[in-house]
Automatic annotation (TrEMBL):
<keyword id="KW-0479">Metal-binding</keyword>
<keyword id="KW-0408">Iron</keyword>
<dbReference type="InterPro" id="IPR011167">
    <property type="entry name" value="Fe_dep_fumarate_hydratase"/>
</dbReference>
<dbReference type="InterPro" id="IPR004647">
    <property type="entry name" value="Fe-S_hydro-lyase_TtdB-typ_cat"/>
</dbReference>
<keyword id="KW-0004">4Fe-4S</keyword>
<comment type="subunit">
    <text>Homodimer.</text>
</comment>
<feature type="domain" description="Fe-S hydro-lyase tartrate dehydratase alpha-type catalytic">
    <location>
        <begin position="11"/>
        <end position="284"/>
    </location>
</feature>
<dbReference type="InterPro" id="IPR004646">
    <property type="entry name" value="Fe-S_hydro-lyase_TtdA-typ_cat"/>
</dbReference>
<dbReference type="GO" id="GO:0051539">
    <property type="term" value="F:4 iron, 4 sulfur cluster binding"/>
</dbReference>
<dbReference type="GO" id="GO:0046872">
    <property type="term" value="F:metal ion binding"/>
</dbReference>
<dbReference type="GO" id="GO:0006091">
    <property type="term" value="P:generation of precursor metabolites and energy"/>
</dbReference>
<dbReference type="InterPro" id="IPR036660">
    <property type="entry name" value="Fe-S_hydroAse_TtdB_cat_sf"/>
</dbReference>
<feature type="domain" description="Fe-S hydro-lyase tartrate dehydratase beta-type catalytic">
    <location>
        <begin position="288"/>
        <end position="487"/>
    </location>
</feature>
<keyword id="KW-0411">Iron-sulfur</keyword>
<protein>
    <recommendedName>
        <fullName>Fumarate hydratase class I</fullName>
        <ecNumber>4.2.1.2</ecNumber>
    </recommendedName>
</protein>
<dbReference type="Pfam" id="PF05683">
    <property type="entry name" value="Fumerase_C"/>
</dbReference>
<comment type="function">
    <text>Catalyzes the reversible hydration of fumarate to (S)-malate.</text>
</comment>
Amino acid sequence: MSVILQNDLIDSVANALQFIACYHPRDFIQSVYEAYQQEQNPAAKEALAQILVNSRLSAIGKRPMCQDTGIVTVFAEIGMGVRFEGEMTLDEMINEGVRRAYSCPSNILRHSVVADPDGSRKNTGDNTPAIIHHHMVAGNSLKLRLAAKGGGSEAKTRFAMLNPSDSVVDWVLEQIPHLGAGWCPPGIIGIGIGGNPEKAMEMAKSQAMASIDIHQLQKRGAKTHEEALRLELYRKINEMGIGAQGLGGLTTVLDVKIASYPTHAANKPVALVPNCAATRHIELTLDGHGAAAMPEIHLDDWPEISRKSDGTVKRVNIDHITKEQMADWKPGDSLLLSGKLLTGRDAAHKRLIDLLDQGKPLPVDLENRFIYYVGPVDPVEGEVMGPAGPTTATRMDKFTPRLLEETGMIGMIGKAERGAATIKAIRDTQAIYLIAVGGAAYLISKAIKAAKILAFEDLGMEAIYEFEVEDMPVTVAVDSKGESIHKIGPEKWREYIKEKGCAACSGQK
Protein backbone atom coordinates (compact mmCIF):
# COMPACT_ATOMS: atom_id res chain seq x y z
CA MET A 1 0.00 0.00 0.00
CA SER A 2 1.29 3.48 -0.95
CA VAL A 3 -0.19 6.66 0.47
CA ILE A 4 0.06 9.62 -1.90
CA LEU A 5 -0.47 12.98 -0.28
CA GLN A 6 -2.74 15.52 -1.92
CA ASN A 7 -0.11 18.29 -2.00
CA ASP A 8 2.53 15.96 -3.46
CA LEU A 9 0.25 15.12 -6.37
CA ILE A 10 -0.74 18.75 -6.97
CA ASP A 11 2.89 19.91 -6.83
CA SER A 12 3.96 17.13 -9.20
CA VAL A 13 1.39 18.11 -11.82
CA ALA A 14 2.14 21.84 -11.51
CA ASN A 15 5.91 21.32 -11.72
CA ALA A 16 5.58 18.95 -14.67
CA LEU A 17 3.45 21.35 -16.73
CA GLN A 18 5.83 24.22 -16.06
CA PHE A 19 8.71 21.94 -17.06
CA ILE A 20 7.30 20.73 -20.37
CA ALA A 21 6.31 24.25 -21.39
CA CYS A 22 10.01 25.16 -21.51
CA TYR A 23 11.93 21.96 -22.26
CA HIS A 24 11.64 19.65 -25.25
CA PRO A 25 12.22 15.93 -24.64
CA ARG A 26 15.83 14.98 -25.40
CA ASP A 27 14.85 12.45 -28.06
CA PHE A 28 12.90 15.14 -29.92
CA ILE A 29 15.85 17.55 -29.99
CA GLN A 30 18.17 14.82 -31.26
CA SER A 31 15.71 13.84 -33.99
CA VAL A 32 15.14 17.43 -35.18
CA TYR A 33 18.91 18.01 -35.24
CA GLU A 34 19.39 14.92 -37.40
CA ALA A 35 16.72 16.23 -39.76
CA TYR A 36 18.42 19.64 -39.80
CA GLN A 37 21.77 18.12 -40.73
CA GLN A 38 20.25 16.14 -43.61
CA GLU A 39 17.87 18.78 -45.00
CA GLN A 40 18.62 20.03 -48.52
CA ASN A 41 15.87 22.64 -48.90
CA PRO A 42 17.24 25.99 -47.57
CA ALA A 43 13.80 27.22 -46.46
CA ALA A 44 13.03 24.01 -44.54
CA LYS A 45 16.55 23.93 -43.09
CA GLU A 46 16.07 27.49 -41.79
CA ALA A 47 12.75 26.48 -40.23
CA LEU A 48 14.42 23.55 -38.46
CA ALA A 49 17.22 25.86 -37.33
CA GLN A 50 14.71 28.27 -35.81
CA ILE A 51 12.98 25.42 -33.97
CA LEU A 52 16.30 24.30 -32.48
CA VAL A 53 17.45 27.82 -31.59
CA ASN A 54 14.07 28.59 -30.06
CA SER A 55 14.18 25.39 -28.01
CA ARG A 56 17.62 26.21 -26.62
CA LEU A 57 16.60 29.80 -25.81
CA SER A 58 13.49 28.54 -24.02
CA ALA A 59 15.55 26.08 -21.98
CA ILE A 60 17.98 28.81 -20.97
CA GLY A 61 15.32 31.44 -20.30
CA LYS A 62 12.84 29.00 -18.74
CA ARG A 63 10.02 30.42 -20.85
CA PRO A 64 7.48 28.66 -23.07
CA MET A 65 8.77 27.36 -26.39
CA CYS A 66 5.35 28.07 -27.96
CA GLN A 67 2.75 30.70 -27.20
CA ASP A 68 0.04 28.03 -27.40
CA THR A 69 0.78 26.34 -24.10
CA GLY A 70 -1.94 23.86 -24.88
CA ILE A 71 -4.84 22.02 -23.35
CA VAL A 72 -3.68 19.47 -20.78
CA THR A 73 -4.17 15.75 -21.38
CA VAL A 74 -3.44 13.28 -18.59
CA PHE A 75 -3.21 9.49 -18.68
CA ALA A 76 -3.41 8.24 -15.10
CA GLU A 77 -2.43 4.63 -14.32
CA ILE A 78 -3.56 4.05 -10.74
CA GLY A 79 -2.06 1.13 -8.87
CA MET A 80 -4.56 -1.06 -7.03
CA GLY A 81 -2.45 -0.59 -3.91
CA VAL A 82 -2.54 3.21 -3.95
CA ARG A 83 -4.46 5.33 -1.46
CA PHE A 84 -4.83 9.09 -1.69
CA GLU A 85 -4.77 11.24 1.45
CA GLY A 86 -6.64 14.55 1.18
CA GLU A 87 -10.04 16.08 0.64
CA MET A 88 -9.93 16.28 -3.15
CA THR A 89 -10.74 13.66 -5.75
CA LEU A 90 -8.01 12.58 -8.16
CA ASP A 91 -9.44 14.80 -10.92
CA GLU A 92 -9.68 17.76 -8.54
CA MET A 93 -6.03 17.32 -7.52
CA ILE A 94 -4.89 17.14 -11.14
CA ASN A 95 -6.89 20.22 -12.08
CA GLU A 96 -5.53 22.13 -9.10
CA GLY A 97 -2.04 21.30 -10.38
CA VAL A 98 -3.03 22.61 -13.81
CA ARG A 99 -4.45 25.78 -12.25
CA ARG A 100 -1.24 26.47 -10.31
CA ALA A 101 1.00 25.72 -13.28
CA TYR A 102 -0.80 28.06 -15.65
CA SER A 103 -1.11 30.84 -13.05
CA CYS A 104 2.55 30.82 -11.94
CA PRO A 105 3.60 34.51 -11.85
CA SER A 106 7.27 33.80 -12.58
CA ASN A 107 6.46 31.93 -15.81
CA ILE A 108 3.01 32.79 -17.08
CA LEU A 109 1.44 30.21 -19.37
CA ARG A 110 -1.31 31.19 -21.78
CA HIS A 111 -4.88 30.31 -20.83
CA SER A 112 -6.37 28.71 -23.95
CA VAL A 113 -9.35 26.73 -22.60
CA VAL A 114 -12.87 28.09 -23.13
CA ALA A 115 -16.14 26.87 -21.66
CA ASP A 116 -19.53 26.75 -23.39
CA PRO A 117 -17.75 25.73 -26.61
CA ASP A 118 -20.76 26.25 -28.90
CA GLY A 119 -21.97 29.34 -27.08
CA SER A 120 -20.16 32.14 -25.28
CA ARG A 121 -16.75 30.39 -25.46
CA LYS A 122 -15.66 32.21 -22.32
CA ASN A 123 -12.09 31.58 -21.21
CA THR A 124 -11.97 29.55 -17.98
CA GLY A 125 -9.13 31.76 -16.78
CA ASP A 126 -6.77 29.06 -15.55
CA ASN A 127 -6.60 26.50 -18.40
CA THR A 128 -8.74 23.98 -16.55
CA PRO A 129 -10.24 21.48 -16.85
CA ALA A 130 -7.74 18.93 -18.10
CA ILE A 131 -8.73 15.92 -20.21
CA ILE A 132 -8.12 12.95 -17.91
CA HIS A 133 -8.05 9.24 -18.77
CA HIS A 134 -8.10 6.75 -15.87
CA HIS A 135 -6.80 3.19 -15.84
CA MET A 136 -6.58 0.88 -12.81
CA VAL A 137 -3.46 -1.30 -12.89
CA ALA A 138 -1.57 -3.63 -10.59
CA GLY A 139 0.98 -2.17 -8.20
CA ASN A 140 1.54 0.43 -5.51
CA SER A 141 2.28 3.54 -7.54
CA LEU A 142 0.56 6.19 -9.62
CA LYS A 143 1.95 6.83 -13.10
CA LEU A 144 0.93 10.05 -14.78
CA ARG A 145 1.64 10.86 -18.41
CA LEU A 146 0.94 14.50 -19.11
CA ALA A 147 0.89 16.42 -22.38
CA ALA A 148 0.16 20.05 -23.23
CA LYS A 149 -1.40 19.80 -26.69
CA GLY A 150 -1.60 22.86 -28.93
CA GLY A 151 -4.75 23.70 -30.85
CA GLY A 152 -3.06 23.69 -34.26
CA SER A 153 -2.12 20.04 -34.13
CA GLU A 154 -5.31 19.01 -32.34
CA ALA A 155 -7.31 20.54 -35.20
CA LYS A 156 -5.67 18.10 -37.62
CA THR A 157 -6.87 14.99 -35.77
CA ARG A 158 -8.56 12.46 -38.05
CA PHE A 159 -10.83 9.45 -37.48
CA ALA A 160 -12.55 6.91 -39.72
CA MET A 161 -14.51 3.68 -39.41
CA LEU A 162 -12.87 1.64 -42.15
CA ASN A 163 -14.18 -1.61 -43.55
CA PRO A 164 -12.23 -4.65 -42.37
CA SER A 165 -10.60 -5.09 -45.80
CA ASP A 166 -9.59 -1.41 -46.15
CA SER A 167 -5.92 -0.44 -46.03
CA VAL A 168 -4.79 1.60 -43.03
CA VAL A 169 -1.73 2.72 -45.00
CA ASP A 170 -3.86 4.01 -47.87
CA TRP A 171 -6.16 5.88 -45.47
CA VAL A 172 -3.28 7.53 -43.59
CA LEU A 173 -1.53 8.56 -46.80
CA GLU A 174 -4.78 10.06 -48.02
CA GLN A 175 -5.09 12.14 -44.84
CA ILE A 176 -1.57 13.52 -44.58
CA PRO A 177 -1.71 16.04 -47.46
CA HIS A 178 -5.01 17.37 -46.08
CA LEU A 179 -3.40 18.09 -42.71
CA GLY A 180 -1.53 20.92 -44.40
CA ALA A 181 1.13 22.71 -42.36
CA GLY A 182 -1.15 23.78 -39.50
CA TRP A 183 0.14 21.00 -37.26
CA CYS A 184 3.68 22.47 -37.51
CA PRO A 185 5.67 19.59 -38.97
CA PRO A 186 8.01 17.93 -38.39
CA GLY A 187 6.50 15.99 -35.54
CA ILE A 188 5.14 12.63 -34.48
CA ILE A 189 2.06 10.90 -35.87
CA GLY A 190 0.15 8.73 -33.37
CA ILE A 191 -2.21 6.10 -34.77
CA GLY A 192 -4.75 3.94 -32.97
CA ILE A 193 -6.30 0.94 -34.71
CA GLY A 194 -9.21 -1.08 -33.36
CA GLY A 195 -11.38 -1.07 -30.27
CA ASN A 196 -14.22 1.36 -30.86
CA PRO A 197 -14.12 5.05 -31.86
CA GLU A 198 -13.15 6.44 -28.46
CA LYS A 199 -10.62 3.67 -27.84
CA ALA A 200 -8.92 4.26 -31.17
CA MET A 201 -8.69 7.99 -30.48
CA GLU A 202 -7.34 7.43 -26.97
CA MET A 203 -4.66 5.08 -28.30
CA ALA A 204 -3.65 7.54 -31.00
CA LYS A 205 -3.36 10.38 -28.48
CA SER A 206 -1.29 8.18 -26.17
CA GLN A 207 1.01 7.12 -29.00
CA ALA A 208 1.58 10.74 -30.02
CA MET A 209 3.20 11.18 -26.59
CA ALA A 210 5.59 8.24 -26.99
CA SER A 211 9.37 8.51 -27.35
CA ILE A 212 11.00 8.65 -30.79
CA ASP A 213 12.72 5.39 -31.67
CA ILE A 214 12.14 4.92 -35.41
CA HIS A 215 15.86 4.79 -36.23
CA GLN A 216 16.42 1.96 -33.76
CA LEU A 217 13.48 0.13 -35.34
CA GLN A 218 14.97 0.66 -38.80
CA LYS A 219 18.23 -0.91 -37.67
CA ARG A 220 16.75 -4.05 -36.08
CA GLY A 221 13.78 -4.50 -38.40
CA ALA A 222 10.10 -5.08 -37.71
CA LYS A 223 8.98 -7.95 -35.50
CA THR A 224 5.24 -7.22 -35.45
CA HIS A 225 2.60 -6.06 -37.90
CA GLU A 226 2.40 -2.68 -36.13
CA GLU A 227 6.16 -2.20 -36.43
CA ALA A 228 6.05 -3.01 -40.14
CA LEU A 229 3.26 -0.44 -40.55
CA ARG A 230 5.35 2.15 -38.71
CA LEU A 231 8.31 1.69 -41.03
CA GLU A 232 6.16 1.76 -44.16
CA LEU A 233 4.26 4.89 -43.13
CA TYR A 234 7.39 6.70 -41.94
CA ARG A 235 9.03 6.15 -45.30
CA LYS A 236 5.99 6.93 -47.45
CA ILE A 237 4.96 10.06 -45.53
CA ASN A 238 8.45 11.52 -45.79
CA GLU A 239 8.53 10.66 -49.49
CA MET A 240 5.62 13.10 -49.95
CA GLY A 241 8.14 15.94 -49.63
CA ILE A 242 5.89 18.13 -47.44
CA GLY A 243 8.81 19.02 -45.19
CA ALA A 244 9.26 21.31 -42.20
CA GLN A 245 6.39 23.82 -41.90
CA GLY A 246 5.04 22.50 -45.22
CA LEU A 247 7.80 24.29 -47.15
CA GLY A 248 8.95 21.18 -48.98
CA GLY A 249 11.80 19.01 -47.80
CA LEU A 250 13.07 15.66 -46.63
CA THR A 251 11.51 15.41 -43.17
CA THR A 252 7.78 15.66 -42.54
CA VAL A 253 7.50 13.16 -39.68
CA LEU A 254 10.07 12.25 -37.04
CA ASP A 255 8.30 9.03 -36.09
CA VAL A 256 5.05 7.14 -36.58
CA LYS A 257 3.71 5.40 -33.48
CA ILE A 258 0.96 2.77 -33.62
CA ALA A 259 -1.13 0.90 -31.06
CA SER A 260 -3.91 -1.58 -31.74
CA TYR A 261 -6.74 -3.24 -29.80
CA PRO A 262 -9.26 -6.01 -30.55
CA THR A 263 -12.35 -4.74 -32.35
CA HIS A 264 -15.73 -5.87 -33.63
CA ALA A 265 -15.53 -8.17 -36.63
CA ALA A 266 -17.49 -5.71 -38.75
CA ASN A 267 -15.32 -2.68 -37.94
CA LYS A 268 -11.83 -1.21 -38.26
CA PRO A 269 -11.72 2.08 -36.32
CA VAL A 270 -8.63 4.15 -37.12
CA ALA A 271 -7.56 7.42 -35.47
CA LEU A 272 -4.68 9.72 -36.36
CA VAL A 273 -3.31 12.36 -33.97
CA PRO A 274 -0.32 14.54 -34.95
CA ASN A 275 2.05 16.03 -32.39
CA CYS A 276 3.67 19.29 -33.45
CA ALA A 277 7.15 20.82 -33.33
CA ALA A 278 6.33 22.08 -29.82
CA THR A 279 5.81 18.53 -28.57
CA ARG A 280 5.39 18.61 -24.78
CA HIS A 281 4.97 15.52 -22.68
CA ILE A 282 6.39 13.88 -19.57
CA GLU A 283 5.91 10.76 -17.45
CA LEU A 284 5.84 10.89 -13.64
CA THR A 285 5.64 8.18 -10.99
CA LEU A 286 4.44 8.80 -7.43
CA ASP A 287 4.84 6.05 -4.85
CA GLY A 288 4.18 7.81 -1.56
CA HIS A 289 7.69 9.22 -1.14
CA GLY A 290 6.97 12.85 -1.95
CA ALA A 291 6.46 14.84 -5.10
CA ALA A 292 7.91 13.51 -8.35
CA ALA A 293 11.32 14.85 -9.36
CA MET A 294 11.70 16.54 -12.74
CA PRO A 295 14.33 15.31 -15.21
CA GLU A 296 17.77 16.88 -15.04
CA ILE A 297 18.51 19.46 -17.71
CA HIS A 298 21.83 19.46 -19.55
CA LEU A 299 22.24 22.28 -22.07
CA ASP A 300 24.78 20.12 -23.91
CA ASP A 301 21.75 18.17 -25.19
CA TRP A 302 20.83 21.20 -27.31
CA PRO A 303 23.00 21.81 -30.39
CA GLU A 304 24.26 25.34 -30.89
CA ILE A 305 23.06 26.34 -34.34
CA SER A 306 24.79 29.16 -36.16
CA ARG A 307 22.24 30.80 -38.45
CA LYS A 308 24.58 32.48 -40.93
CA SER A 309 22.96 34.51 -43.67
CA ASP A 310 23.96 33.55 -47.19
CA GLY A 311 23.18 37.05 -48.39
CA THR A 312 19.73 36.21 -49.71
CA VAL A 313 17.79 37.43 -46.65
CA LYS A 314 16.06 40.75 -47.31
CA ARG A 315 15.56 43.37 -44.61
CA VAL A 316 12.20 45.07 -44.99
CA ASN A 317 10.66 48.10 -43.26
CA ILE A 318 6.92 47.47 -43.38
CA ASP A 319 6.10 51.02 -42.26
CA HIS A 320 7.00 52.28 -45.72
CA ILE A 321 6.53 49.22 -47.93
CA THR A 322 4.57 49.53 -51.17
CA LYS A 323 2.76 46.95 -53.26
CA GLU A 324 5.22 47.64 -56.04
CA GLN A 325 8.10 46.60 -53.78
CA MET A 326 6.21 43.53 -52.55
CA ALA A 327 5.67 42.45 -56.17
CA ASP A 328 9.36 41.45 -56.28
CA TRP A 329 8.99 38.96 -53.42
CA LYS A 330 8.84 35.28 -54.41
CA PRO A 331 7.58 32.20 -52.52
CA GLY A 332 10.37 30.92 -50.29
CA ASP A 333 12.13 34.28 -49.94
CA SER A 334 13.46 34.91 -46.42
CA LEU A 335 12.70 38.33 -44.94
CA LEU A 336 13.55 40.18 -41.75
CA LEU A 337 10.69 42.54 -40.92
CA SER A 338 11.01 45.78 -38.99
CA GLY A 339 8.31 48.31 -38.22
CA LYS A 340 4.82 48.29 -36.76
CA LEU A 341 2.33 45.49 -37.34
CA LEU A 342 -1.08 44.71 -35.93
CA THR A 343 -2.17 41.42 -34.37
CA GLY A 344 -5.49 39.62 -34.56
CA ARG A 345 -6.95 36.13 -34.41
CA ASP A 346 -10.36 34.51 -34.84
CA ALA A 347 -12.35 36.51 -32.30
CA ALA A 348 -10.91 39.86 -33.38
CA HIS A 349 -11.51 39.06 -37.05
CA LYS A 350 -15.12 38.15 -36.30
CA ARG A 351 -15.67 41.49 -34.57
CA LEU A 352 -14.07 43.41 -37.45
CA ILE A 353 -16.36 41.70 -39.96
CA ASP A 354 -19.40 42.35 -37.74
CA LEU A 355 -18.53 46.06 -37.72
CA LEU A 356 -18.18 46.07 -41.50
CA ASP A 357 -21.59 44.39 -41.77
CA GLN A 358 -23.10 47.10 -39.56
CA GLY A 359 -21.46 49.92 -41.50
CA LYS A 360 -19.60 51.06 -38.40
CA PRO A 361 -16.00 52.33 -38.30
CA LEU A 362 -13.27 49.89 -37.32
CA PRO A 363 -11.32 50.56 -34.10
CA VAL A 364 -8.04 50.30 -36.04
CA ASP A 365 -7.03 51.56 -39.48
CA LEU A 366 -5.92 48.57 -41.56
CA GLU A 367 -4.92 50.52 -44.67
CA ASN A 368 -1.39 49.61 -45.81
CA ARG A 369 -0.93 47.53 -42.65
CA PHE A 370 0.21 43.99 -41.92
CA ILE A 371 -1.70 41.82 -39.45
CA TYR A 372 0.00 39.04 -37.49
CA TYR A 373 -2.11 36.05 -36.48
CA VAL A 374 -0.93 35.55 -32.89
CA GLY A 375 -2.23 35.11 -29.37
CA PRO A 376 0.85 35.87 -27.27
CA VAL A 377 1.82 34.80 -23.78
CA ASP A 378 1.72 37.64 -21.27
CA PRO A 379 5.17 39.10 -20.53
CA VAL A 380 7.01 38.63 -17.28
CA GLU A 381 9.41 41.15 -15.75
CA GLY A 382 12.02 42.26 -18.25
CA GLU A 383 10.00 41.27 -21.33
CA VAL A 384 8.17 43.45 -23.81
CA MET A 385 6.02 40.47 -24.79
CA GLY A 386 6.00 36.79 -23.95
CA PRO A 387 6.39 34.02 -26.54
CA ALA A 388 4.50 35.08 -29.65
CA GLY A 389 4.52 32.51 -32.41
CA PRO A 390 2.02 32.36 -35.27
CA THR A 391 -1.35 30.66 -35.20
CA THR A 392 -2.91 28.77 -38.11
CA ALA A 393 -3.83 31.22 -40.85
CA THR A 394 -6.41 28.89 -42.43
CA ARG A 395 -8.87 29.75 -39.67
CA MET A 396 -8.84 33.38 -40.82
CA ASP A 397 -9.66 32.47 -44.44
CA LYS A 398 -13.39 33.07 -43.96
CA PHE A 399 -12.65 36.70 -43.05
CA THR A 400 -9.59 37.57 -45.15
CA PRO A 401 -11.06 38.34 -48.61
CA ARG A 402 -13.35 41.05 -47.21
CA LEU A 403 -10.61 42.63 -45.12
CA LEU A 404 -8.29 42.74 -48.11
CA GLU A 405 -10.94 44.15 -50.42
CA GLU A 406 -12.60 46.65 -48.04
CA THR A 407 -9.93 47.90 -45.63
CA GLY A 408 -6.76 48.35 -47.67
CA MET A 409 -4.82 45.78 -45.61
CA ILE A 410 -1.80 44.62 -47.64
CA GLY A 411 -0.13 41.80 -45.71
CA MET A 412 -0.67 38.94 -43.30
CA ILE A 413 1.66 36.80 -41.20
CA GLY A 414 0.69 33.40 -39.84
CA LYS A 415 1.52 29.75 -40.28
CA ALA A 416 0.28 27.07 -42.69
CA GLU A 417 -1.39 27.33 -46.06
CA ARG A 418 -4.24 29.53 -47.29
CA GLY A 419 -7.42 28.43 -49.06
CA ALA A 420 -8.20 29.02 -52.72
CA ALA A 421 -10.55 31.96 -52.12
CA THR A 422 -7.99 33.72 -49.93
CA ILE A 423 -5.21 33.16 -52.45
CA LYS A 424 -7.44 34.64 -55.15
CA ALA A 425 -8.09 37.68 -52.96
CA ILE A 426 -4.35 38.06 -52.32
CA ARG A 427 -3.73 37.97 -56.07
CA ASP A 428 -6.58 40.33 -56.88
CA THR A 429 -5.44 42.94 -54.34
CA GLN A 430 -1.67 42.42 -54.87
CA ALA A 431 -1.31 41.67 -51.17
CA ILE A 432 1.16 39.23 -49.58
CA TYR A 433 1.06 36.35 -47.09
CA LEU A 434 4.11 35.57 -44.99
CA ILE A 435 4.73 32.76 -42.53
CA ALA A 436 6.67 32.65 -39.30
CA VAL A 437 7.89 29.35 -37.91
CA GLY A 438 5.40 27.51 -35.72
CA GLY A 439 7.47 26.28 -32.78
CA ALA A 440 9.75 29.34 -32.63
CA ALA A 441 7.60 31.56 -30.39
CA TYR A 442 10.25 32.57 -27.86
CA LEU A 443 12.74 33.37 -30.62
CA ILE A 444 10.15 35.55 -32.38
CA SER A 445 9.34 37.39 -29.14
CA LYS A 446 12.93 38.64 -29.05
CA ALA A 447 12.16 40.69 -32.18
CA ILE A 448 9.28 42.55 -30.46
CA LYS A 449 10.59 45.88 -29.15
CA ALA A 450 7.29 47.49 -28.12
CA ALA A 451 3.68 46.37 -27.71
CA LYS A 452 0.38 48.00 -26.86
CA ILE A 453 -3.28 47.00 -27.04
CA LEU A 454 -5.30 49.00 -29.57
CA ALA A 455 -8.70 47.28 -29.50
CA PHE A 456 -10.86 44.52 -27.98
CA GLU A 457 -8.91 44.33 -24.72
CA ASP A 458 -11.63 42.11 -23.26
CA LEU A 459 -10.50 39.32 -25.61
CA GLY A 460 -7.30 38.83 -23.62
CA MET A 461 -4.66 37.13 -25.74
CA GLU A 462 -6.95 37.59 -28.77
CA ALA A 463 -7.02 41.39 -28.46
CA ILE A 464 -5.63 43.55 -31.28
CA TYR A 465 -2.12 44.69 -30.37
CA GLU A 466 0.35 46.85 -32.20
CA PHE A 467 3.82 45.30 -32.15
CA GLU A 468 6.93 47.20 -33.09
CA VAL A 469 9.34 44.59 -34.41
CA GLU A 470 12.97 44.53 -35.45
CA ASP A 471 14.32 41.81 -37.75
CA MET A 472 11.40 39.43 -37.27
CA PRO A 473 12.18 36.33 -39.38
CA VAL A 474 9.49 35.34 -41.91
CA THR A 475 9.18 33.52 -45.24
CA VAL A 476 7.10 34.52 -48.24
CA ALA A 477 4.33 31.92 -48.50
CA VAL A 478 1.92 33.43 -51.04
CA ASP A 479 3.25 36.16 -53.30
CA SER A 480 1.26 38.98 -54.86
CA LYS A 481 0.68 36.86 -57.96
CA GLY A 482 -0.97 34.08 -55.96
CA GLU A 483 1.90 31.57 -56.06
CA SER A 484 1.98 29.46 -52.88
CA ILE A 485 5.09 27.88 -51.34
CA HIS A 486 2.84 25.25 -49.75
CA LYS A 487 1.96 24.02 -53.25
CA ILE A 488 5.17 24.41 -55.21
CA GLY A 489 7.54 23.47 -52.33
CA PRO A 490 6.22 19.95 -51.66
CA GLU A 491 5.81 19.29 -55.40
CA LYS A 492 9.47 20.13 -56.01
CA TRP A 493 10.80 18.07 -53.15
CA ARG A 494 8.53 15.11 -53.85
CA GLU A 495 10.14 14.92 -57.28
CA TYR A 496 13.59 15.33 -55.74
CA ILE A 497 13.00 12.43 -53.36
CA LYS A 498 11.56 10.32 -56.18
CA GLU A 499 14.72 10.88 -58.23
CA LYS A 500 17.12 10.26 -55.35
CA GLY A 501 15.21 7.29 -53.90
CA CYS A 502 14.43 6.41 -50.28
CA ALA A 503 17.90 7.46 -49.11
CA ALA A 504 16.86 11.10 -49.47
CA CYS A 505 14.29 10.74 -46.67
CA SER A 506 15.36 11.68 -43.19
CA GLY A 507 17.14 8.95 -41.30
CA GLN A 508 17.49 6.57 -44.23
CA LYS A 509 21.05 6.01 -45.29
